[in-house]
């Protein structure tokens, strides 16, 4: 029988880390997720103790990542693909793993959990792939919120990648398989390259870039866009097809703008 597992990451504040104190989230998140077979929490200290300190190291706060000033102190979410991989190691092929952000005081929809197991299974059926990371909106594009050096080096300045829809990594569904493990390793390795995730441009510029980097999400979107263009593992050409109204996973929205597909030759 397929098991459904969920993981969260939260910072604790001093003395364990220099992030925001989100310890209050844990008990409430445990209570609303009893429908899952397993729930696991990671913190910067947990990763430090496991020997993964490089994934939660501090980065400079700059004009392109100042919105994520607190996250600069705990790795700019480079840890996200890592903790997914660490949990997959405990699971069987075919089991399902969910990641959700933990700060429900910032986004109250993170507590919307009605029929979540059914919702997860339904989403995987709609997307028809072992990885689900939702589209942010109808018109936002990867190239607008991804550092030009990432587009240049990871995607060879590909116009399709630049115009691929921006993805948001606050809610991720992974079905354990060879495909999902390969993707997460590729994402993890790219997040470990400082010039891809930090707040500096390294003298690489692009007029499309809006001087606002979405860190690990930008890297993730670039990799997914490459997979779609290559049709790697038959990932659907209209991936990910859906998103959510106001980040509420109970309010699925189907998108209509696929103009970027014209760039696939």
**What count of structural domains?**
1
Order of helices and strands: EHEHHEHEHHEHHHEE
Helix content: 25-40%
Give the strand tally. Answer: 7
Global morphology: globular
Could you outline the blueprint of secondary structure elements for this entry?
Elements: E1 4-9, H1 25-32, E2 38-42, H2 44-49, H3 79-88, E3 96-100, H4 116-127, E4 131-135, H5 148-155, H6 159-163, E5 167-175, H7 178-191, H8 194-197, H9 216-230, E6 242-244, E7 252-254
Parallel strand pairs: 1-2, 1-3
Antiparallel strand pairs: 3-5, 4-5, 6-7
Helix pairs in contact: 3-7, 5-9, 7-9
Task: Give a description of the structure.
- The protein has one domain.
- Helix content is 31%, strand content 14%.
- It has nine helices and seven strands.
- The strands form two sheets. The protein has a five-stranded mixed beta sheet with strand order 2-1-3-5-4, with helices on both faces. The protein has a two-stranded antiparallel sheet with strand order 6-7.
What structural keywords apply?
two-stranded antiparallel ribbon; five-stranded mixed β-sheet; 265 residues; single chain; alpha/beta
Brief summary of the model shown:
With 265 residues, this protein is an alpha/beta fold. The protein has 9 helices and 7 strands, in the order E-H-E-H-H-E-H-E-H-H-E-H-H-H-E-E. It has one domain (4-263).
């Amino acid at each position: 029988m397929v098991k459904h597992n969920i993981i969260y990451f939260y910072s604790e504040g001093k003395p364990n880390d220099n992030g925001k104190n989100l310890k209050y989230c844990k008990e409430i998140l445990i209570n609303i997720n009893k429908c899952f077979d397993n729930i696991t929490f990671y913190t910067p200290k947990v990763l430090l103790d496991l020997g993964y300190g490089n994934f939660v190291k501090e980065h400079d706060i700059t004009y392109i990542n100042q919105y994520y000033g607190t996250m600069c102190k705990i790795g700019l979410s480079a840890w996200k693909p890592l903790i997914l991989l660490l949990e997959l190691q405990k699971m069987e092929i075919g089991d399902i793993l969910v990641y959700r952000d933990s700060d429900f005081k910032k986004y109250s929809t993170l507590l919307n959990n009605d029929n979540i197991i059914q919702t997860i299974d339904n989403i995987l059926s709609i997307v028809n792939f072992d990885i689900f990371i939702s589209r942010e909106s109808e018109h936002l594009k990867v190239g607008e919120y991804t550092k030009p050096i990432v587009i240049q080096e990871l995607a060879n300045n590909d116009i399709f990648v630049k115009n691929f829809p921006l993805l948001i990594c606050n809610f991720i569904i992974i079905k354990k398989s060879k495909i999902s493990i390969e993707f997460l390793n590729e994402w993890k390795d790219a997040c470990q390259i400082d010039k891809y995730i930090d707040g500096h441009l390294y003298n690489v510029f692009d007029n499309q870039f809006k001087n606002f980097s979405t860190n690990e999400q930008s890297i993730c979107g670039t990799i997914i866009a490459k997979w779609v263009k290559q049709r790697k593992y038959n990932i659907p050409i209209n991936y990910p097809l859906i998103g959510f109204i106001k980040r509420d996973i109970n309010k699925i929205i189907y998108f209509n703008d696929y103009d970027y597909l014209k760039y696939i030759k």
